[in-house]
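In this section we walk through a basic example: taking a raw amino acid sequence and producing a predicted 3D structure, encoded as discrete structure tokens. The instruction is simple. Fold the sequence below.
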Amino acid sequence: MNEPIDIKTKKVIPLSKSKFKKSLVLENLEQNILSHWDTWGKFQQAWTSRAYKSFKDLDKYLVLIYLIRDNWMTLSGKFQYLTMDEFYDSEKVTIDKINLIQVSQDLNIPKETIRRKVNELQNSNILKRHGKSIVFNRQGIETQKPNEMIELLSVFIEKKSKMMSGQDWFGEKLSKDYITRFIKKYFTIVWLRFFRMQIPFLTRHRKVFGDLETWIVWGNIGLSHQYHLAKAAERNLVTSEITLKSYYSNVADVKIDRGVNASSIADISSIPRATVIRKLKWLVSQKAIKKNKNLEYQMKKGGRLNAKISENFLLNQNSVADFLTDIFDLMKNSEFKL
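The resulting token sequence is shown next.
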């Protein structure tokens, strides 16, 4: 059977089957859970910090990338793809027949909020609405150009490939340079897969925490605990095996002398300090964190919210395994070559 080919671009999207098992990828992540979560947590911290700094509103950014993703899904459905340069050289990108009810359901955000965010993006000259269609102009396309994030994602994928390179089923590790060039050449294919992971990932956190800014505030405290858990493990102070299921309780339960203060969280996240303090108060009221005598915040074990966070953690790690399995198949097992 001949591979499908787009008549206009002459670009072939191979019909290849996955050769890596997700179960093996997930098993490897569990075996390296401390180093894996450290790189994953720092990647998400950097990604959300840049997004917030650009838009001051993560819901608005979530709507924006959802709409852009729709364009890439249309391309994929036609067996087309664009390089990074080709996509960002476009004068405009059109999304036909946008359904605000569907967007609302997919993002778990009220329809009126979606409408308001779309209007705000239009007022910022990022997009224009024409009936049921949305058109991004060059400025709108450029607002979410992920130059820095491609570098960060390449580092993340490189570290995961290095972790798995000792396994017979995986083969040799991939270099950061190769990964970066691959992403840029097959940009809409790779970034579509990234958004398929990232959009539900953010949506799940939004549902658990009420908004994404609260999740970011909590995440900075979580990263501090993760750091101390890794240090305790290095000193053989962790007596029980850390698995995916037990990981969150181990992070929350690790003993630390100092916590993270509101000013530090505001500096790292770019979220205003007054907003950070308000989110911290809510997290304390939910018994997810506690404040010490130095006005620093630490995680607290137990509570209904922590149970939801722990459940969410397992769902998210399955999504990460799906993404990595798909990406490694593309880079190592498909006909896509540099």
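Looking at the output, two observations stand out. The mean pLDDT is 90. Strands lie at 92-95, 127-130, 133-137, 289-291, 297-299. In the next section we compare this with other chains.
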